[in-house]
Design goal:
The protein is α/β, with parallel strands linked by helices. It has two domains: 206 residues, Spore Coat Polysaccharide Biosynthesis Protein SpsA, Chain A, CATH 3.90.550.10; 130 residues, no CATH class. The chain contains 14 helices and ten strands. Strands 1, 2, 3, 4, 5, 6, 7, 8, 9 and 10 form a ten-stranded mixed beta sheet that branches. A hairpin with a 5-residue loop joins strand 6 and strand 7. The longest helix is centred in the last third of the chain and has 30 residues. The chain starts with 13 loop residues before the first strand and ends with a helix.
Length: 362
Amino acid sequence: MGDRGRAPVSGVLVSICVPTYNRADYLVESLATITAQTYAPLEILIADNASTDATESICRALAARDPRVRYVRHPRNIGLYENHNFCIEESRGDYLCFFHDDDRYAPDVVAENVAVLDAHPSVGIVCSDWDLMDETGQRFGGRRFAVSPVTRGLDYVERTIASGRSSICCPGTLIRRAALGKVRFPESGPIGFGDFLVWFEVAERADVGHVRRTLWSYRQHARSLSRRPLHAMASDYLENLETYFAGHLARWPAHADRVARWRRLARRYAFWTLIYELCLHARRERGGPPRSRVRSIFELADFALSPDDVARVRATLHRLRRGPMQRVVLLLVESLVDTGLTAPLAWATRHTERFRARLVAP
C-alpha cells in the first residue's frame, strides 16, 4: 500500500497486535479500519489461534498485498491471554496495542495515542473514549470519561476499582513497551477483568493517559467473551482483584492500608452490581425494557436468571453486604422481589450511571 495521506513518520515503530479466533465475519471490516491508520511506521501482527473458518485465507491475502502485515497461525489454540502474551513477545514496536478482530477503529486512533506517549514520558498506557455497537454495527451506547489527559497511576487504579469501569480498555489502548516491562496477561484464573491486572501493575510505576475523543467502537455480539451474566462477571472481578491485591502487597509491602481500602471498594462495587442484576431481572419479569434504546451491554444481552441464579445472587449479596445502607437496600430489594412489587426496581435500571457516579464519590 502507498503512503499517500499518511501522517509523517515519527520514528517510533508501533505494533498493532490482532489476536484472532474464528471471527472471519467481523475480521474483514476490522482489518480494513486497522490498515487505514494514518500513523507510520507501523507493523500489524495477526496471531491466529488456529481458526477453523475463513480467517487464514483472509489474513494471508491481506499480508500478500500489505507489507506491514505479518500473519502467524498457531497449530493449535493456545488460549486467549496466551495469544496476547505471544503478541507481546513477537511484536517489535517500542509502542504496541491490541486491536480486536471484531471492533472498528478511527484512522487516527494510533496517531492520537502516540501523540500522548510522545508528549508525556511518564505515561505508560493511553486510551481514548469509545462507542459501544451491536452485532449489526449500530451504536447503542459509549464510554466517556471525564478524566485528565494524564492521571497518576495509583489514582487510576483506585478510581477503577471503585467504579468497576476502566478508562483503559484492551482493544483501544496503546502501551509503552518500556513501561510494560515483564508484565504479562494472566494465563490462569478467570478471563473477565484479566486485563485489569496488566493495567494496574503498569500503573504502579507509570501515569495513565486519556484522549477525550471517541476513536473506536467496541462490538458486542453473541460470541463476545464479555457477553455473560452479571453475577459471573462480578465473580471474575473479585477473583482477579484478589490476585492483584496479593501481588501488589508482595511488590509494595508498605501498602497494606491502601490494599485494605481497595478490597472494601471492590466488595462495594460487586454488591451494587448484583443489586443491579436483580433490578434487571425484575424489569424483565415485568415484560422487558420500558424503552427501545439499550443503555448497557447487559441489557443488550438480555440474560434471564433462573430461580437458582436468583438464589445464588441473593446469597452472594448477603455475604458481600457491609454497613447499614447496604443492609437496608438489600432488605428492600428482596422484599420487592418476593412481593412482586418491582416497579421501583425497573425504574432504578434507567439511572445506573447516576448510581455508578456515587461509587466513586469521596
